[in-house]
Write a structure and sequence with these properties.
Layout lengths: L2 H8 L6 H27 L3 H22 L6 H23 L6 H23 L1
Helix pairs in contact: 2-3, 2-5, 3-4, 4-5
């Protein structure tokens, strides 16, 4: 049992696999996006990519908080935050993906953001 599954079970959530996967992906993406932002800031000249990575980190963190409350939330809020997370992840994955061949942090971030977008879309499809 993962930490996420244990948390959801402790609040009476059924811990559907799609919810667990989305929560884990959102947490990872927020961390990787933040780390990539710091690395890009030290390089300089990547203002657009930094903005997208910061947006991605912030939206992933917000979506994680909403999902971590468990089942029973407002469906419109849930779908809205999942859609926003997928959009922010897509934009950031594309921006950092353009630099993935010469910056390891961008490669990791692009992969994490793309995986997160997939995970939140999978959860969204179950709603």
């Amino acid at each position: 049992m993962t930490h996420t599954t244990e948390h959801l079970a402790s609040i009476g959530d059924t811990a559907a696999p799609e919810r667990v996967d989305a929560l884990d992906a959102l947490a990872e993406c927020e961390q990787v996006s933040t780390a990539c932002t710091i690395a890009m800031a030290s390089i300089g000249g990547m203002a657009g990519e930094i903005r997208r990575a910061l947006d991605c980190a912030d939206v992933c963190a917000a979506a994680h908080r909403v999902l971590a409350r468990g089942e029973g939330g407002d469906p419109d809020t849930l779908t809205g935050v999942l859609d926003a997370a997928a959009q922010a992840c897509d934009a950031s994955a594309a921006a950092c993906g353009a630099h993935a061949d010469h910056h390891e942090h961008c490669r990791r971030h692009a992969e994490s953001a793309a995986a997160c977008a997939d995970a939140v879309r999978s959860l969204r499809a179950t709603l």
